Protein backbone atom coordinates (compact mmCIF):
# COMPACT_ATOMS: atom_id res chain seq x y z
CA UNK A 1 0.00 0.00 0.00
CA UNK A 2 2.28 2.68 -1.28
CA UNK A 3 1.60 6.02 -2.86
CA UNK A 4 -1.01 8.62 -2.07
CA UNK A 5 -4.13 6.72 -2.96
CA UNK A 6 -6.16 4.65 -0.56
CA UNK A 7 -5.82 0.87 -0.79
CA UNK A 8 -8.54 -1.16 -2.39
CA UNK A 9 -10.12 -4.19 -0.80
CA UNK A 10 -8.51 -6.28 -3.53
CA UNK A 11 -5.04 -4.97 -2.65
CA UNK A 12 -5.55 -5.66 1.04
CA UNK A 13 -6.80 -9.17 0.28
CA UNK A 14 -3.84 -9.86 -1.99
CA UNK A 15 -1.35 -8.68 0.67
CA UNK A 16 -3.15 -10.77 3.31
CA UNK A 17 -3.13 -13.81 1.04
CA UNK A 18 -6.91 -14.21 1.01
CA UNK A 19 -9.66 -13.57 -1.48
CA UNK A 20 -11.64 -10.32 -1.43
CA UNK A 21 -14.76 -12.42 -0.79
CA UNK A 22 -13.28 -13.66 2.49
CA UNK A 23 -12.68 -10.06 3.59
CA UNK A 24 -16.19 -9.06 2.58
CA UNK A 25 -17.59 -11.93 4.63
CA UNK A 26 -16.15 -10.32 7.78
CA UNK A 27 -15.83 -6.63 6.84
CA UNK A 28 -18.18 -4.30 5.01
CA UNK A 29 -15.43 -2.01 3.72
CA UNK A 30 -11.73 -1.19 3.57
CA UNK A 31 -12.35 1.07 6.55
CA UNK A 32 -13.50 -1.91 8.61
CA UNK A 33 -10.32 -3.80 7.78
CA UNK A 34 -8.26 -0.74 8.71
CA UNK A 35 -10.07 -0.33 12.05
CA UNK A 36 -9.35 -3.91 13.08
CA UNK A 37 -5.75 -3.65 11.90
CA UNK A 38 -5.21 -0.30 13.62
CA UNK A 39 -6.59 -1.68 16.88
CA UNK A 40 -4.15 -4.60 16.71
CA UNK A 41 -1.25 -2.28 15.87
CA UNK A 42 -2.05 0.01 18.81
CA UNK A 43 -2.30 -2.95 21.18
CA UNK A 44 1.09 -4.15 19.94
CA UNK A 45 2.64 -0.71 20.46
CA UNK A 46 1.28 -0.39 24.00
CA UNK A 47 2.67 -3.85 24.77
CA UNK A 48 6.06 -2.68 23.49
CA UNK A 49 5.92 0.36 25.75
CA UNK A 50 5.51 -2.03 28.66
CA UNK A 51 8.70 -3.88 27.76
CA UNK A 52 10.96 -0.82 27.89
CA UNK A 53 13.41 -1.14 30.75
CA UNK A 54 15.44 1.93 31.46
CA UNK A 55 17.53 3.10 34.36
CA UNK A 56 17.00 6.17 36.42
CA UNK A 57 19.28 8.46 34.43
CA UNK A 58 17.82 10.83 31.86
CA UNK A 59 20.28 9.60 29.21
CA UNK A 60 19.17 5.98 29.71
CA UNK A 61 15.49 6.92 29.52
CA UNK A 62 16.05 9.07 26.42
CA UNK A 63 18.06 6.37 24.67
CA UNK A 64 15.51 3.64 25.41
CA UNK A 65 12.58 5.84 24.46
CA UNK A 66 14.08 7.06 21.18
CA UNK A 67 15.21 3.57 20.18
CA UNK A 68 11.73 2.17 20.83
CA UNK A 69 9.90 5.01 19.08
CA UNK A 70 12.26 4.71 16.09
CA UNK A 71 11.57 0.98 15.86
CA UNK A 72 7.81 1.57 16.01
CA UNK A 73 7.85 4.44 13.53
CA UNK A 74 10.02 2.56 11.04
CA UNK A 75 7.84 -0.52 11.21
CA UNK A 76 4.48 1.22 11.02
CA UNK A 77 5.13 4.58 9.29
CA UNK A 78 3.43 3.62 5.98
CA UNK A 79 0.48 2.18 7.88
CA UNK A 80 0.21 5.28 10.10
CA UNK A 81 0.25 7.55 7.04
CA UNK A 82 -2.50 5.53 5.35
CA UNK A 83 -4.57 5.42 8.55
CA UNK A 84 -4.36 9.18 8.96
CA UNK A 85 -5.36 9.61 5.32
CA UNK A 86 -8.33 7.27 5.66
CA UNK A 87 -9.48 8.72 9.00
CA UNK A 88 -11.35 11.46 7.20
CA UNK A 89 -13.77 8.75 5.99
CA UNK A 90 -13.98 6.57 9.09
CA UNK A 91 -14.82 7.96 12.51
CA UNK A 92 -13.43 4.84 14.20
CA UNK A 93 -10.03 5.39 12.59
CA UNK A 94 -9.99 8.99 13.76
CA UNK A 95 -10.79 7.77 17.26
CA UNK A 96 -7.98 5.21 17.06
CA UNK A 97 -5.51 7.89 15.98
CA UNK A 98 -6.46 9.89 19.05
CA UNK A 99 -6.10 6.75 21.20
CA UNK A 100 -2.62 6.11 19.79
CA UNK A 101 -1.50 9.65 20.54
CA UNK A 102 -3.03 9.43 24.00
CA UNK A 103 -1.19 6.15 24.66
CA UNK A 104 2.06 7.77 23.56
CA UNK A 105 1.42 10.79 25.81
CA UNK A 106 0.88 8.47 28.78
CA UNK A 107 4.13 6.71 27.95
CA UNK A 108 5.99 10.04 27.72
CA UNK A 109 4.48 11.11 31.05
CA UNK A 110 5.58 7.88 32.71
CA UNK A 111 9.18 8.32 31.51
CA UNK A 112 9.70 12.07 31.73
CA UNK A 113 6.91 13.50 33.90
CA UNK A 114 9.16 13.53 36.94
CA UNK A 115 11.68 15.70 35.09
CA UNK A 116 9.02 18.40 34.73
CA UNK A 117 7.82 18.36 38.36
CA UNK A 118 8.16 21.58 40.22
CA UNK A 119 7.71 23.73 37.14
CA UNK A 120 4.77 26.12 36.90
CA UNK A 121 1.72 24.40 35.40
CA UNK A 122 1.66 26.28 32.11
CA UNK A 123 5.41 25.74 31.56
CA UNK A 124 5.13 22.04 32.46
CA UNK A 125 2.19 21.65 30.05
CA UNK A 126 4.01 23.40 27.19
CA UNK A 127 7.18 21.36 27.69
CA UNK A 128 5.20 18.12 27.89
CA UNK A 129 3.44 18.98 24.63
CA UNK A 130 6.83 19.69 23.04
CA UNK A 131 8.12 16.27 24.14
CA UNK A 132 5.08 14.59 22.60
CA UNK A 133 5.31 16.62 19.41
CA UNK A 134 8.96 15.63 18.94
CA UNK A 135 8.12 11.97 19.54
CA UNK A 136 5.11 11.91 17.19
CA UNK A 137 5.31 9.76 14.07
CA UNK A 138 4.83 12.85 11.90
CA UNK A 139 8.08 14.32 13.26
CA UNK A 140 9.86 11.03 12.63
CA UNK A 141 8.47 10.91 9.10
CA UNK A 142 9.63 14.49 8.49
CA UNK A 143 13.17 13.63 9.57
CA UNK A 144 13.29 10.46 7.49
CA UNK A 145 11.60 11.71 4.32
CA UNK A 146 11.82 15.50 4.06
CA UNK A 147 15.24 15.79 5.69
CA UNK A 148 16.46 12.49 4.19
CA UNK A 149 18.02 11.41 7.49
CA UNK A 150 19.08 7.85 8.12
CA UNK A 151 17.52 6.04 11.06
CA UNK A 152 20.61 6.71 13.19
CA UNK A 153 20.73 10.37 12.20
CA UNK A 154 17.03 10.79 12.96
CA UNK A 155 17.52 9.16 16.36
CA UNK A 156 20.39 11.54 17.12
CA UNK A 157 18.29 14.56 16.18
CA UNK A 158 15.32 13.31 18.19
CA UNK A 159 17.43 12.56 21.29
CA UNK A 160 19.03 16.02 21.12
CA UNK A 161 15.65 17.75 20.73
CA UNK A 162 14.16 15.83 23.66
CA UNK A 163 17.24 16.56 25.79
CA UNK A 164 16.95 20.30 25.03
CA UNK A 165 13.31 20.31 26.11
CA UNK A 166 14.16 18.47 29.33
CA UNK A 167 17.11 20.76 30.13
CA UNK A 168 14.90 23.21 32.00
Q: Can you describe what's shown?
A:
This protein is mainly alpha-helical and 168 residues long. The chain has a single domain (9-166), classed as Tetracycline Repressor, domain 2 (Orthogonal Bundle). 79% of the residues lie in helices and 0% in strands. It contains 8 helices and no strands. The chain has helices spanning 9-16, 20-26, 30-51, 58-86, 91-116, 121-135, 137-146, 151-166. Helix 4 (58-86) runs antiparallel to helix 5 and helix 6 runs antiparallel to helix 8. The relative contact order is 0.12. The mean pLDDT is 88.
Topology:
Blueprint: H1 9-16, H2 20-26, H3 30-51, H4 58-86, H5 91-116, H6 121-135, H7 137-146, H8 151-166
Helix pairs in contact: 1-2, 3-4, 3-5, 4-5, 4-8, 5-6, 6-8
Amino acid sequence: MHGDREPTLEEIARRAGVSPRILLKYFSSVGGVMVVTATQVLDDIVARYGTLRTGPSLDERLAGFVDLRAEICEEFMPFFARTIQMARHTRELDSLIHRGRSDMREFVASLFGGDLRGLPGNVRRDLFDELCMIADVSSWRYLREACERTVEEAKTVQRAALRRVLAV
